[in-house]
Transmembrane 6 superfamily member 2-like
Amino acid sequence: MDVPPEISVFILSLTAPFILYTINHVSFLQDPQVILAIGIMVLTTIFLLANLSVKSKKSTDPLFYVFAVFSFTSVVSITNALQHHGFIKGFMDFYISKVEPYLNTAHGIMMSYWDGVLHYGLLLIMVHRMTAGKPFRSLALVWAGSMIASQIVLITGVVVGKYGKNLLPAFWRNAPSLVLPIWVVAKFFNRPREPSIIPADKVEVEVEQKKTLLSRPTDLLLTLGLMGSIIFTAFRGFVVLECSLDFCFTYIFQYEPYMKDSVGFPKVTMLVFLFYVLPLLTACVYGLHAPGCTWMLDWTLVLAGAVAQMQWTHLGASVHSRTPFTYRIPKDEWRQVVTLNLLYTAVPVLLAVRCYMDQTFFMKSVPQEQASNGKKKN
């Protein structure tokens, strides 16, 4: 009896703890060069075994293999997080000391939880929907946005932070973890969305698109939230760039001192927000104001995944016990800082939900005759 592909991917991913436990207790396998070779060999094996599970199918989306490999690495991540908090032991000692020591930081632990829970869940759902012939575009874009943000901060933070002085060979395994999600986004952006246009004779949609922003309370609130997010993004960017203004100095010392941590991750996070997220937030303000911006349907999903991942890791690390006490959020300001960060996270997520729930508003409207002619030609 053939095992369903999604079950095969799930079973393959669960081999990760056994492999980690074996390497952790066999000393000659713990050389950094050997570990890199083992990692390449294991991921190649996962790819080949995943291929066997769909060999009977006439055609398989290449994304299936990407999701299968990342499912395995997600289980590695949750194993790392669980060991650091004492739920399990004997799996990751060698890996932290000889492969990726930065995963021992608060940032690394919080990133591992996100990857091992949310990413893993998304991957399994996407594999299931793929094999069932159901759409998974939205889930894939959320996952890819989250992965891209995670890897940009991790790779850059390691290089510019205190761990950059002694990079081990296995560090470069993170490069495919950045490149492949970018490829996933590009692949979906090149796939046409159905339907891509709406006939203009759909009166309700046409009337809704002609309303001003003031006549659309939900979009007005989201616009105000986006503008607030833009201001907060720019402000925190200036803070980590060591702006000399008094309120910047006060904020980093009294509200979010974690941004001064020498690990490098918090500073890189704020710079990614400043140089990448801020332009997208600004573009989204325009997208809410001008109907027919089809790009909003995809980019808001990527943005929501990226912001949620970075905010989870940043906020979690700001209160984590692994972060030195002087860099944690002060108890007196804890409620205000956490609330502000949660609101900042909620804005792009709510925007993505709004776009997903009412996709027709963001689709281009054409005259009914033109739409009919286009169908006849096809």
